[in-house]
Amino acid sequence: MPKYKSQAVCERNIAQLQAKIERTKTRLEKMENELRNLLSEKEQAEARQLYDAYKRSNKTFDQAMTFFGKKG
Predict the structure, then answer these.
(1) Cα 19 → chain centroid
(2) For residue 72, is pLDDT > 60?
(3) Average pLDDT of the chain?
(4) 58: alpha, beta or left? (left if phi > 0; alpha if psi -120 to 50)
(5) Is the per-residue pLDDT at 3 higher than 90?
(6) Backbone region of residue 6 per phi and psi (left: phi > 0; alpha: psi in -120 to 50; beta: other values)
(7) Which conformational region is residue 39 in: left (phi greater than 0), alpha (psi within -120 to 50 degrees), or beta?
(8) In Å, how far from its chain's centre is CA 54?
(9) 66 Cβ neighbours under 8 A, 6+ residues apart
């Protein structure tokens, strides 16, 4: 005859798994925030590099925009 788990054991296991899921969700949210921050930092660094290159090029704004395909 198979041995069945008691309802209390099942409820305890469910509660433990739900707690584990919540901890994992919290970790995921923290990692998503960190990723957003890092992507923002990367975008800002790229913008600075682009601006610096534009300033060093001695090109006009219109020439730069034409180069990028955005005719003013």
Answers:
(1) 24
(2) no
(3) 92
(4) left
(5) no
(6) beta
(7) alpha
(8) 29
(9) 72
